Amino acid sequence: MTPEELARSVARGERRALARAITLVESRRADHGAQGAALLDALARESGGRQAIRIGLSGTPGVGKSTFIESFGLMLTAQGLRVAVLAVDPSSARTGGSILGDKTRMERLSRDPKAFIRPSPSQTHLGGVARRTREAVALCEGAGFDVVLIETVGVGQSETVVAELSDVFLLLLAPAGGDELQGVKRGIMEVADLIVVNKADGDLKPAAQRTRADYAGALRLLRRRPQDPEGFPKAMTVSALEGGGIDTVWSEIGALVAWRRENGHWDRRRADQARHWFLEDVRQGLLAELDAPANRDLLEHMARDVAAGRVAPAAAAQELLTRLERASAPGAELSGAARV
Amino acid sequence: MTPEELARSVARGERRALARAITLVESRRADHGAQGAALLDALARESGGRQAIRIGLSGTPGVGKSTFIESFGLMLTAQGLRVAVLAVDPSSARTGGSILGDKTRMERLSRDPKAFIRPSPSQTHLGGVARRTREAVALCEGAGFDVVLIETVGVGQSETVVAELSDVFLLLLAPAGGDELQGVKRGIMEVADLIVVNKADGDLKPAAQRTRADYAGALRLLRRRPQDPEGFPKAMTVSALEGGGIDTVWSEIGALVAWRRENGHWDRRRADQARHWFLEDVRQGLLAELDAPANRDLLEHMARDVAAGRVAPAAAAQELLTRLERASAPGAELSGAARV
């Protein structure tokens, strides 16, 4: 099957074609890279203009992320919407298990014909995760999904990556008892549109409501972002287990999306994100010079000297740059002479 | 005067030599760049191992930053400590006035022989500000100052830069009345060690105490960082005008510094920062290729196409990188042939 044929199958919404397409863009083989680019290019022509609502979702293990996604996803498919679930999990190999590797955690959603769940790819550096997730999101959009959920456990910089891929960002929390620390990563407050306190059921309900009030208070202390209508970011409670509040999460997302669309923020965010990823790819391309094994060793060696105070940062950087230039420009002497 | 002679004068603590040295490292002239490097190198030999406590300070206009610095600085000089005040203000040209351009705002401190106040350099891109401020900090340390205060209005990414230059970071706030929004930039919660609510005097005292309590509550919701002892980051009130609480700020900084020194966090942070600036300088050096006018135009042109959706980010990035490679390697054909 050519990339063009695969693109047509994806655009028709064929699940197996989509799975195969994602495997192709996740591959590290050089020939697969070219095929993946051709596939994305063909898909853009086949399904240009199709847009899903991309929802980023972050939450530490134990907050009930899988239960929430299952409950939220089933509510959407019951409304006739098609839902894709992707995961960004740079730590999956390290922690010994992908958050989505076991589809049995979302057993009902994974059997739903209107849902598509894709386990996270194996561990790699975050730059690689970002590119592949972006391409998987584009494939799901091209396949006509109405909602793409992009899940992350929030290790390292991953929620920043997911935020740059999402239209709306949700932070899922568990109720905290009394003075217990929630341990929210600080950077998350930058990107969250909705703070959703889960497990608002049974004994935990009062604690969930208190936690919600705490975060609502904290959010009021932060500066309002231009892309936020009155009242956003918002803190709310849900019970993923019993389904309480799940529909409100969706209606709040709907209100936020409608406002951003009307006020030009939706298109601007998508445009800014495209621009961001372009610049990021260019930067990564230029910085890739440092990834060559010999250069990486040299960099690490010099970084140790700098950290130990044996040489000043600026002087070390200058020396490294000079060495890289010499190593990478075999015609350098020639062109230097030509300039004189 | 040679850079070596200037370094010796700086190391002896001569104020005029220090001012001249900072002017040298702030200069953009190429020959000054080499002299500045020689100066820093010589100073490191003259005064190696001298360490000030570097305190980053951020706060929006109107919170009483100048009054706080004057009051805090005079308390320190009264204890016999030498204090330098530097400013990072990438917006100074835009807003029409440097936060420290007018020394009359800290009239008493600027006349104090134990204090050294340096207005912020004229506007430039943040990367340049970072390097020059780093070098100015190094000069003040080499000149034997006990405390170096690095002030920023927190425009753009400037508090991230200041945090990477500081041992301790203070956020100064004004009391908020009732539901009034403080508008704290979200990223600041990442880096603050002390949140100091100013103007806890007269009518505003109850509001200041309430604001302090609000932030103390918000801080409890965030994850504890490894470099923080029990109880940090901490929220507190001061009256810069009447001097109330200023000594407590200093004793809290002392407790924090002592704990971090004992637990290895002080040295580790300095080492991490040196490493960070080395890597940052290397990256900036590699990315400088994009600053050439022709490349910048091309980048901007392609970024517009990407933002408008006319081309995919990855494809555009690939094309740009290929063009840069061709343009920057006059010996490329030759070396390509040699490799075959």
Automatic annotation (TrEMBL), chains A, B:
Residues 51-223 form the AAA+ ATPase domain. Gene3D superfamilies: 1.10.287.130, 1.20.5.170, P-loop containing nucleotide triphosphate hydrolases. Keywords: Hydrolase. GO terms for molecular function: GTP binding; GTPase activity. InterPro entries: AAA+_ATPase (IPR003593), GTPase_ArgK (IPR005129), P-loop_NTPase (IPR027417). GO terms for cellular component: cytoplasm. Its EC number is 3.6.5.-. SUPFAM superfamilies: P-loop containing nucleoside triphosphate hydrolases (SSF52540). Belongs to the SIMIBI class G3E GTPase family. ArgK/MeaB subfamily. NCBIfam families: lao, PRK09435.1. This is Methylmalonyl Co-A mutase-associated GTPase MeaB. It comes from Rhabdonatronobacter sediminivivens. The gene is meaB.
